[in-house]
């Protein structure tokens, strides 16, 4: 179970390809820097390679088996089996979240859905995964009577991932064999968006937003990553002053860290699915006032202190092979 406090914001980040053009979709992602991305734990590599069976490995056996050479030629992973896990893949991550009620925010529940475009490179049971966020859908939340019975939500255009300063993610995984039924494990890793951390995976998340070393990953000359408040219908701009209901933020500058780990099963040579474990943390590091002007330090603190705390109760992932060179549109079509 993980917790995060934010205004309709999740973090998992990578730079998305230029194919994505839907400005109405939400997206948010992260990395420790624009050049290096996911920081993974140096833990076990799930060495199950014996299950696949590499033939002819006993140096004491002088007999040569011609069929062994043929099998090796048909084993792209080097761990036994017939599947080639070098692929472009669509990945969808779904996380169930709840949040408690407070003075302003009503208790609620929802889901965070994240779409990724990934490139897998498998060799000897190890799988390198280079990921790119295509979209994130986030739940809205509502305020109670004291706060006007309003609905708040944030939106990140897909185009944010085309920024030259947006980082990509490079993660490490392992696979037990090269056949359907194999176990797929993505090592625990951390991504930070909108800031840098000396130890993204194990460093303490600061309690005060002033302690963050912000970075302008989306290249808009504002700290962190800019999220626009949703408008229309019953949506309202978030309040930034407890005593003045007219003081509102139209844009929020956010920093977030996500740690994640996958454990799943290869269903076919073209698909996998399983459980996803995540934790998320977030701070507001600034905002834009409706009508123009930047939020004061106090207004930013008020906004940050009143973001809802999401509790992650469980998650799943799906993976499907795509054609080489596919983009985010293919991700949405494969895993709508």
Concise overview:
With 336 residues, the protein is mostly beta strands. It has helices at residues 66-73, 297-305, 328-334; strands spanning 2-5, 39-40, 87-99, 108-123, 126-137, 141-142, 151-152, 154-155, 169-175, 183-193, 195-196, 213-214, 225-229, 249-268, 271-289, 309-322.
Summed over residues and divided by their number, the pLDDT gives a mean of 78
Please state how the strands of the largest beta sheet are arranged side by side.
3-4-5-9-10-14-15-16
Instruction: Round the Cα radius of gyration to an integer and report it.
Output: 22 Å
Helix and strand pattern: EEHEEEEEEEEEEEEEHEH
Key terms for this structure?
336 residues, mainly beta, eight-stranded antiparallel β-barrel, two-stranded antiparallel sheet, 3 helices, disordered N terminus
Would you give an account of this structure?
The protein is mainly beta. The protein has one domain (2-40, 78-334). Helix content is 7%, strand content 40%. It contains three helices and 16 strands. The strands form three sheets. An eight-stranded antiparallel beta barrel has the order 3-4-5-9-10-14-15-16. It has a two-stranded antiparallel sheet with strand order 6-7. Strands 11-12 form a two-stranded antiparallel ribbon. A hairpin with a 2-residue loop joins strand 14 and strand 15. The chain is elongated and about 65 Å long. Residues 1-79 have low confidence and may be disordered.
């Amino acid at each position: 179970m993980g917790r995060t406090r934010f205004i309709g914001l999740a973090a998992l980040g990578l730079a998305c390809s230029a194919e994505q053009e839907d400005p109405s979709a939400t997206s948010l992602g992260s990395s420790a820097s624009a050049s290096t991305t996911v920081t993974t734990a140096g833990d076990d590599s799930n060495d199950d390679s014996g299950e696949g069976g590499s033939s002819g490995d006993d140096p004491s056996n002088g007999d040569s088996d011609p069929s062994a050479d043929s099998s090796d030629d048909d084993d792209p992973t080097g761990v036994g089996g017939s599947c080639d896990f070098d692929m472009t893949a669509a990945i969808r991550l779904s996380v169930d979240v709840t949040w408690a009620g407070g003075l302003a925010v009503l208790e609620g529940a929802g889901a965070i859905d994240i779409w990724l475009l990934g490139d897998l490179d498998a060799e000897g049971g190890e799988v390198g995964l280079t990921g790119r966020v295509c979209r994130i859908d986030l739940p809205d939340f509502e305020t109670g009577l004291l706060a006007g019975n309003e609905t708040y939500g944030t939106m990140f255009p897909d185009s944010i991932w085309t920024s030259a300063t947006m980082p990509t993610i490079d993660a490490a995984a392992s696979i037990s064999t090269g056949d359907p039924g194999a176990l797929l494990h993505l090592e625990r890793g951390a991504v930070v968006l909108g800031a840098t951390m000396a130890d993204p995976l194990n460093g303490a998340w600061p309690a005060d937003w002033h302690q963050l070393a912000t970075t302008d990953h989306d290249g808009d000359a504002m700290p962190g990553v800019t999220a626009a408040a949703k408008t229309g219908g019953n949506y309202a701009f978030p309040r930034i002053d407890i005593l003045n209901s007219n003081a509102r933020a139209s844009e929020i500058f956010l920093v977030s860290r996500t740690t994640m780990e996958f454990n799943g099963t290869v269903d076919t040579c073209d698909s996998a699915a399983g459980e996803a474990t995540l934790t998320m943390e977030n701070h507001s590091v600034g905002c834009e006032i409706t009508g123009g002007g930047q939020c004061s330090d106090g207004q930013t603190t008020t906004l940050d202190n009143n973001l809802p705390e999401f509790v992650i109760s469980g998650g799943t992932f799906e993976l499907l092979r795509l054609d080489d060179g596919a983009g985010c549109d293919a991700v949405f079509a494969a895993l709508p």
